[in-house]
Design brief:
heterodimer; A: mainly beta; Immunoglobulin-like; three-stranded antiparallel beta sheet; 50% strand; B: alpha+beta; 2 domains; six-stranded mixed beta sheet; 9 strands; extended
């Protein structure tokens, strides 16, 4: 799962609007494979963290109830244009991915 | 002879202690990964999920706004936006009450983050979407019903 993550951060007044789109199947572990009739094992992002210039702004625990290719939007007051936003996720199999962008 | 017997018993006890320690050691990595709140996410009903979050009897609040469609045609992707106007909001949890495991996400905010989370969730059937907000050591909640015409859990 090294597919890229999309991330966008824009300033609106003094609030940064950050939007992240992660690529992930988000299997619940309850769905059956149509061909084999076997349950598809759970595979979903459990942990998402975000920092701005190294300061933690968001730490999220996700369950399998989040839609496939999770979208996450949040707002942070105080950063400036050019500040570095870094988003990391970890899934239940230990896969990780990270993305970063500068606030525009 | 007695002394030998003692030693053997001691040895046996010692060995089993080591075995237990190893078993505990083996279990540890999975537990360490569970900064992820497994009890809350595995909970099969809203009450247990809230217990897992450390929330009991949250107060209803009109300062929590949930933006979600009244009718979701596709339960696999239901956009949900939660805005908390409560000062000092530190976390927002989103639950779909009738999902097999109701807790969808628990978002902890820090470092200037506003009381706002936008995401997309799966819903198995028509149900209340509930937001639980923690602020200043207290918890608040609000809910909005979303009608689902095609469930998003299962195939």
């Amino acid at each position: 799962m090294a597919e890229p993550m999309r991330i966008r951060a824009t300033m609106a007044g003094d609030v940064a609007d950050i939007k992240v789109l992660m690529n992930h199947p988000m299997e619940t572990g309850q769905r059956k494979d149509a061909k084999t009739g076997q349950l598809v094992p759970a595979h979903f992002i459990q942990d998402v963290t975000a920092t701005i210039n190294g300061v933690a702004v968001l730490s999220a625990n996700l369950g399998s109830g989040v839609s496939k290719n999770p979208y996450l939007g949040f707002k942070v007051k105080g950063p400036k244009v050019g500040d570095k936003v870094v988003v990391n996720w970890t899934d239940n199999k230990g896969d990780k991915n990270t993305a970063e962008t500068a606030i525009a | 002879m007695n002394a030998l017997r003692r030693n053997v018993l001691k040895g046996a006890a010692g060995a089993s202690t080591v075995a237990i320690a190893i078993a505990a050691g083996l279990l540890k990595p999975t537990q360490a990964m569970a900064a992820w709140n497994a009890p809350a996410f595995d909970a099969k009903n809203v009450g247990d999920a809230m217990k897992g979050l450390g929330v009991s009897a949250p107060a209803d609040s009109k300062d929590i706004l949930i933006k979600a469609p009244d009718i979701a045609e596709n339960g696999a992707v239901v956009p949900v936006e939660v805005t908390s106007k409560i000062a000092g909001t530190t976390s927002i949890a989103i639950l779909a009450e009738k999902n097999g495991t109701p807790l969808v996400g628990d978002f902890t905010l820090s470092g200037g983050s506003q009381g706002f989370i936008s995401t997309r969730i799966k819903m198995g059937q028509t149900s209340l979407v509930r937001a639980v907000v923690k602020a200043g050591g207290k918890s608040y909640t609000a809910a909005k019903e979303v009608k689902v015409t095609i469930g998003g859990c299962g195939g």
